[in-house]
Amino acid sequence: LAYCGHLRTIRNHLACLVDSKAVVEETTGPVNEDFWKECRNSKSEKMEKEFLSRTYRYGINGMEPSILRRKVWPYLLGLVSWTEDFEQLKNTYRAKYYNDVVEWEKIEKIIRERDQEAFAAARLRYHTFNTETNVSFQETSLNNEVFEESDETDRGEKNIEEEDLLAKFSANLHRIEKDVERCDRSSAYFAKKENLQKLKTVMCTY
């Protein structure tokens, strides 16, 4: 009896988890040009829900799917809200993107110069060490000494926040470059060097 009572309790709990309302299939077919035009004319919450439902269940398809996807994805990614017109904002986003690229390329230039200076200092230290002592170069002491001296000099000359920004961006830049180099070159897109540069630019910007 105790066991039956326990099962009855479990059944009651499970019943509370089940929605008794029937699932009615209200949307059919993928998002196409006609439906998308209707969505942009209405911009209502109801149309947004139907748009998301169609997209997740049936995908995006039409006379020219690639063109339609370029119009749809900014809304799926949350780049713009449902009530906004992406075509009107596109030039604004494009200008901001290229301004951001210019800004981080300035930082990249500083990082490249520092890398070259550090490498030159390391080579000089290596040759000086070998000439004076005639012993093999100990790699474990090179990098730490070079960068420690560089850091001490920079801290006295520049703002700490700028140094922190440079350090973080430098670390991310080197990670991104490694990730880009590991792209599958058997893919037609990544087989082209200019496309690898595009990927690096996008990743560094965002």
Number of helices: 8
| DSSP helix fraction | over 70%
Helix and strand element order: HHHHHHHH
User: How many beta-strand runs?
Assistant: 0
Shape: extended
Q: How many domain regions? A: 2
The fraction of residues assigned to DSSP E strands is under 5%
Which residues sit in consecutive blocks of at least 5 with pLDDT less than 50?
Answer: 137-143
Rg is 29 Å
End-to-end gap: 64 Å
Sheet/helix structural class:
mainly alpha
**What characterizes the major β-sheet?**
none
Q: Could you report the average pLDDT, rounded to the nearest whole number?
A: 83
Description:
InterPro entries: Rab-GAP-TBC_dom (IPR000195), Rab-GAP_TBC_sf (IPR035969). Residues 63-206 form the Rab-GAP TBC domain. This is Rab-GAP TBC domain-containing protein. The longest helix is centred in the middle third of the chain and has 48 residues, at 86-133. Helices cover 75% and strands 0% of the residues. With 206 residues, it is mostly helical. It has helices spanning 2-17, 33-42, 45-58, 65-76, 86-133, 139-157, 160-181, 193-205. 2% of the residues are buried. α5 (86-133) crosses α6 (139-157), α5 packs across α7 and α7 (160-181) runs antiparallel to α8. The protein is built from 8 helices and no strands. The protein is extended, with a radius of gyration of 29 Å. The chain folds into 2 domains: 26-82, no CATH class; 88-205, no CATH class.
